[in-house]
From TrEMBL:
Residues 9-18 have a biased composition (Basic and acidic residues). It comes from Loxodonta africana. It is a multi-pass membrane protein. The gene is MFSD9. Belongs to the major facilitator superfamily. GO terms for molecular function: transmembrane transporter activity. It holds the Pfam family MFS_1. PROSITE patterns: MFS. It is found in: Membrane. One of its GO terms (cellular component) is membrane. This is Major facilitator superfamily domain containing 9. The keyword Ribosomal protein does not apply.
Amino acid sequence: MASATPGPRQERGTEAEARAAGPGAFGTRRFLLCLYLVGFLDLFGVSMVVPLLSLHVKSLGASPTVAGIVGSTYGILQLFSSTLVGCWSDVVGKRSSLLTCILFSALGYLILGASTSVFLFALARVPVGIFKHTLSISRALLSDLVAEKERPLVIGRFNTASGMGFILGPMVGGYLTELDGGFHVTAVICFSVFLLNAGLVWLFPWSEVKSSTTKNGLQLGKNNTFAGKTGYKVQNATTTHGATASEKTARLPWTEVMSALRDTKSLIFSEMWDIFLVRLLMAVAVMLYYSNFVLALEERFGVRPKTTGYLISYSSTLGALAGLALGPIMRLYKYNSHRILLHSSLLTFTLLLLYSTAHTMRVVVFSSTLLSFSTAVGRTCVTDLQLTVGGAQASGTLIGVGQSVTAVGRIIAPLLSGVVQEVSPCGPPSLGAALALVAIFIMLLKKPGYGGDRSDKLKSE
């Protein structure tokens, strides 16, 4: 991107980019703290409402079958919208897409608070299912702001901040639901939290990282991640930015979105299918563990749901704090995300197997403690692998595809759980352990494709 003889303006731009690129720079650090706060508030608001959805739709007179169909609406919409919204964020910019997603999600929770029928309840899930990608866009924005070496650490801290919101939200929601019309009050408060988040995003110090985001925006708008396939060059985008600005504005954003999606499809099926398959298998494995956790503990050990809730909060807290340990772990493994993912998946497989064969609650608590840690580390590392192999320039698209894969897991996991529960309450975690084992074999077989050597090469670049 550098010309042969840089002028004063270009030198100033280069200095600004250097300041924004370093995670130790004051402007970027303040911006990261703002994003952490957005992640906390997002899951804080959502987790106040989500645990109460099944009770509310039942109070509206929905049968279990209808409630199940309405509940699956969110996962189905997420399946199709994750990749599209992620790619759209790469084209129009992270600020506009983040604000849009927050505001439309707020609208969905407002309708949910006013829902007095099953139809309104289902209608409220539509804007949330389509636009609830604030965390994905925030992670993509994080990957654009920091160096690749620091990306897992920063994303881990973001997961910690959002995880703390998920811990506090259910407690507040549980208290509010005891009030008269508690669900409606909770949904309105969630709506207010999302409006607060939108205000924070609007007031973000975007100017302090403007050079960095503009640079990334040029790359994303030109689909530079797939440079070998598209033929666009970042150098041309930089030198002719003034001349092409009107052309880019005239072009329909969805034309660029569809073009990027076609390139993403070829990339995924040619190079990244194994990463997304591992993500799907591990996601379904963990979802199977949680699918009947409360019921299984009651049937196997006679544990009351209230006590199980405390155990879930305890493990969620540990999972959130696991993000703080990513720094030492990454240094210990010399920033080899593939090896960390492999070892965390091995630990997850062992703990799922241990839980499914446990005979005492001590074993359950032990397995739950370590499982929250291994799954939190694994989620961060698989995201880092996606961005490393696919290229961080199209971060929104790549993370969106990953969310679509997870949405597939949300659809598959309840079906598998219902079938294997007919055999035994230990069926879901046992099946989850088997799927985790398959994912481990895939990582071992495909290690030369995206293992340590390639990762080191990309990081050095």
